[in-house]
Write a structure and sequence with these properties.
With 278 residues, the protein is an alpha/beta fold. It has two domains: 146 residues, Rossmann fold, CATH 3.40.50.620; 131 residues, Rossmann fold, CATH 3.40.50.620. It has ten helices and ten strands. Helix 8 links the parallel strand 7 and strand 8. It starts with a strand and ends with a strand.
């Protein structure tokens, strides 16, 4: 992992993301790229009036000051940090920036509603998740010296999702983690018997691992009224510190969350979520 891209608006939640990104960068000897999206209007950027030019200058100076305040944080000491400014708040273009700087990971803060669907659906973060060709790590709360130990990987054992699964294994191979591959069985027309699930799992693992399933990878079946609810109840039960899942590009994650769950479950959605595009 050579470069980590961190979009920032200098808010509290983007600070949480930067702190986690800094911790990961230190562990992996990575560089950080801080991206600020100013959102200056076209009028400010193109007109010649002194007032508009002064306004643009003011925003640029303010951005430089905030970048400096970010860089003065003790958790960034001795890390290689680059700064970038994008004038328009077009969040789908973050993927283009990631490709330009050859980033391996995007780390973003989120202050959306609780629950995974609250983190992503209808938010700027979802726009990034939909378009990103590299993994996106979403952080909702402060986590100093972050290092994953126990991973919950959401999986429906579809062969077309193999690439995301193998990418997740590669990503987490940097740490001595336990990976819990979790299938959530729903009481809908998609309900499957244990025999059906295990048959699909065995084929999936046979293709993914070829020889032998690694000792740190285990499979589990959870029954719940929604995928989101099942994931978070399981994650809480085993003390997971990250949830990882595949996403299908432009479809985003909406297809992943059918049905609804209680607010008490959704409010527990405080651990980081890693999405990997199929």
């Amino acid at each position: 992992m050579n470069k980590i891209l961190v979009p920032t608006d200098f808010s509290e939640h983007s600070t949480y993301a930067l702190e986690v990104a800094a911790s990961l960068a230190r562990q992996n000897k990575s560089e950080l790229v801080l991206l600020h999206m100013m959102g200056l209007s076209e009028a400010i950027l193109t007109k010649d009036s002194s007032q508009e030019a002064a306004e643009a200058h003011y925003y640029m100076k303010l951005t430089q000051k905030r970048f400096q305040e970010f860089r003065d944080q003790p958790y960034l000491k001795d890390l290689k940090v680059h700064e970038m400014v994008q004038n328009y708040k077009i969040f789908s273009e973050i993927n283009e920036v990631a490709m330009e700087v050859k980033a391996d990971l995007i780390v973003m803060g989120s202050h959306g509603a609780s629950g995974i669907s609250g983190i992503f659906v209808g938010s700027n973060t979802e726009k990034v998740v939909r378009t990103a060709k590299i993994p996106v790590l979403v952080v909702k709360k402060q986590r100093q010296e972050y290092k994953p130990h126990r991973v919950v990987y959401a999986c429906d054992y579809k062969i077309e999702d193999l690439s995301a699964y193998t990418s997740a294994l590669k990503f987490f191979s940097r740490w001595p983690v336990d990976i819990h591959v979790v299938y959530v069985n729903l009481p809908t027309e998609k309900f499957k018997s244990s025999a059906e699930i295990y048959k699909e799992r065995d084929l999936f693992f046979k293709v993914a691992h070829r020889m032998e399933i690694p000792a740190n990878v285990t499979s589990h079946v959870v029954c719940d009224y929604s995928i989101e609810g099942g994931l978070f109840q399981y994650a809480e039960a085993v003390g997971a510190d990250i949830i990882a899942m595949p996403t299908h590009g432009r479809k985003g994650l909406a297809h992943f969350f059918k049905g609804s769950i209680g607010e008490d479950v959704a409010n527990r959605a405080e651990i980081p979520v890693l999405t990997i595009q199929v």
